[in-house]
């Protein structure tokens, strides 16, 4: 066993190179360990997701400089914090690492976990927008093997998505930002939480028209209809825009965008000259014909072809 400096793995080994690694400190540490990076995606506003698998390893984190949410997806019963050997991991358990944390981990049996990395800048911006507070005054308490069903449900939902698919990236970003919001709320004072619970009105009529027109004009472009892009159109923070949009429309931004894409597809499939499915999919903002078919069947119970035939015979 060799002795390494702070922020490096303990066990001596030859790491397997991993392409395009995220820049977060914890991700860099894990890339030098036996851990295998299975999935990763950069979300908006300095937030990243990564899924790792590890076994038979020792890893040390040292003052990463950013917040991290860790959710165990599978295994973990053989993972423990060296300073707390009585605490053992399990599927669904969560850990929260703060920028100043130092921890030494033993991984004795297979474990798969999802990490959500929040950059220091992203955390500061979110604290200011949501809590109207000085970022340095609001920090999380580290947690080891906590139990939070909302974080676990969010992680499960993220694992169901294809992070490389533009449409599903929109959903992943929405879920990821909700998890960051929840982290920030855990740092809030009772007075700040009370202020956030006050009723919030919806979008003004003019703002609603502007946002919905933007969605209709840019359905084919997932980035243009993402939560950050629409919040910018409304000149609001993402947090407040998401709340006001839901108040006005009765659904999330992602749900509304998907509804509009399916509505556009239905109109095209009802026309006399139906375009090829691949062309129609791209025009409606779906990544491929198969993505259009899956979404259509999931929400309408029939395939686009079946819907088109029904419309012609109606």
Automatic annotation (TrEMBL):
InterPro entries: AraC_XylS_family_regulators, Homeodomain-like_sf, HTH_AraC, HTH_AraC-typ_CS
SUPFAM superfamilies: Homeodomain-like
Keyword set, alphabetical order: DNA-binding, Transcription, Transcription regulation
Pfam family membership, one: HTH_18
Limits of the HTH araC/xylS-type domain: 209-310
Superkingdom per UniProt: Bacteria
Record-level Gene Ontology MF annotations: DNA-binding transcription factor activity; sequence-specific DNA binding
Stated name of the protein: Transcriptional regulator, AraC family
């Amino acid at each position: 066993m060799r002795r390494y400096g702070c922020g490096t793995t303990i066990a001596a080994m030859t790491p397997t190179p991993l392409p395009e690694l995220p820049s977060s400190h914890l991700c860099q540490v894990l890339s030098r360990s036996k851990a295998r990076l299975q999935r990763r995606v950069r979300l908006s506003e300095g937030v990243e997701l990564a899924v790792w698998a590890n076994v038979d390893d020792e890893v040390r984190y040292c003052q990463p400089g950013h917040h991290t949410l860790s959710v165990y997806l599978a295994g973990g019963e053989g993972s423990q914090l060296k300073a707390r050997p009585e605490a053992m991991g399990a599927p669904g358990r969560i850990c929260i690492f703060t920028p100043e944390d130092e921890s030494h981990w033993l991984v004795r049996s297979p474990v798969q976990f999802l990490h959500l990395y929040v950059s220091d800048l992203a955390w500061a911006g979110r604290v200011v927008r949501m809590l109207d507070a000085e970022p340095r005054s609001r920090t999380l308490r580290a947690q080891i093997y906590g139990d939070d069903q909302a974080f676990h449900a969010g992680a499960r939902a993220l694992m169901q998505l294809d992070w490389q698919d533009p449409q599903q990236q929109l959903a992943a970003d929405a879920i990821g930002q909700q998890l960051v919001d929840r982290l920030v709320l855990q740092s809030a004072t009772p007075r700040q939480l009370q202020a956030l619970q006050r009723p919030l009105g919806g979008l003004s009529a003019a703002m609603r028209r502007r946002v919905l027109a933007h969605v209709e004009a840019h359905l084919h472009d997932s980035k243009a209809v993402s939560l950050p892009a629409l919040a910018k159109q409304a000149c609001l923070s993402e947090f407040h825009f998401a709340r006001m949009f839901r108040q006005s429309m009765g659904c999330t931004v992602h749900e509304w965008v998907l509804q509009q894409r399916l509505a556009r597809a239905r109109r095209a499939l009802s026309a006399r000259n139906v375009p090829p499915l691949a062309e129609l999919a791209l025009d409606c903002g779906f990544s491929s014909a198969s993505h259009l078919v899956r979404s259509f069947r999931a929400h309408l119970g029939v395939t686009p072809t079946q819907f088109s035939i029904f419309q012609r015979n109606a």
